[in-house]
């Protein structure tokens, strides 16, 4: 039967979800388990119990509805999802609750409801696709295993993880995350106020910050903060159109996913930037002066931005053979320019074996 353990609210709320026939036996104190049924653990996992700053709630083999209810009741800062506990104890299995297999990313991510946790730990093998689905939902930090792993490895990692959560390191992490969120909110408030002052009332929704911007990209609200940061970092909107909007900008935004299949995203980002951010950029001194990495001047010209190091160059200063035209690099979904230094580093032949 699913069980939820409750204690007083502390600084960090953790919801742990265990599954498999042997998960409940692992949670049973040895003093309460008959000798004939007591599970002898070769790889003892640290006990999931509230202590100090940590408030733990545990679900064992829940139904989908019970998991949703627990999220709403607990509002976890940290969500820990463990795969099936195998009888032989040699490895951790996939995520299965009762008769429900949660290996499908779309089904899995539909269970995660707001308010979202700050961090999720997926103790399941090959959890990359599940992690990507969580990122696409807007969860900033996901810890996962790329490959298969043993119970021995998992037990040691959980020991380390629990130690971090109960230490001042976790406090520092929460402070940094909260500071970043406040910084993003301050930026959006500043942009909203600027748009109102310029008379662009239609761009600011009546709901204020909670609904700003009223633009959706890849099923998520447009990430104005990273859109502005990445464009300004590369010299601003009018830097000769030498920005690869899809490869260099979109990939740094929260709207991006590894499995993204959107077409025309570069042109879409340029339109959104012109609508929300271009006037703001021109009215603020956020752009550092750039110089060409080849001729070391800031003269006008056809500027291109290296997709690896982020440095700028005049395309005309790059005399290498086989380069494409400026038009090819400046398209919103165009080719990626790689500077001479990065090309040498990337394609440097390996040293011969002694």
Describe the 3D structure:
Helix content is 34%, strand content 13%. It has twelve helices and eleven strands. It folds into three domains: 155 residues, Rossmann fold; 37 residues; 132 residues, Zinc/RING finger domain, C3HC4 (zinc finger) (Herpes Virus-1, 2-Layer Sandwich). It starts with 11 loop residues before the first strand and ends in an 8-residue tail after the last helix. By secondary structure, it is of the alpha/beta class. The N terminus is likely disordered. Strand 10 and strand 11 form a beta hairpin. This is AT-rich interactive domain-containing protein 4. Keywords: Metal-binding, Zinc, Zinc-finger. It comes from Zea mays (Maize). GO terms for molecular function: DNA binding; zinc ion binding.
Classification by helices and strands: alpha/beta
Q: Over the alpha carbons, how many angstroms does the gyration radius reach?
A: 25 Å
CATH class of the largest domain: Alpha Beta
Which descriptor suits the 3D outline?
Answer: globular
Count of DSSP H/I helices: 12
Q: Report the portion of residues in β strands.
A: 5-15%
- Measured between the Cα atoms of the first and last residue, the distance is 63 Å
* CATH architecture descriptor of the largest domain: 3-Layer(aba) Sandwich
- Work out the helicity level: 25-40%
* Largest sheet, strands/sense/barrel: 5 strands, parallel
Low-confidence stretches: 1-10, 28-41
Number of domains: 3
CATH fold assignment of the largest domain: Rossmann fold
* Series of H and E elements: EHEHEEEHEHEHHEEHHHHEEHH
Average pLDDT figure: 80
GO molecular function: DNA binding; zinc ion binding
InterPro entries: ARID4, ARID_dom, ARID_dom_sf, Znf_FYVE_PHD, Znf_PHD, Znf_RING/FYVE/PHD
Pfam families: ARID
Keywords: Metal-binding, Zinc, Zinc-finger
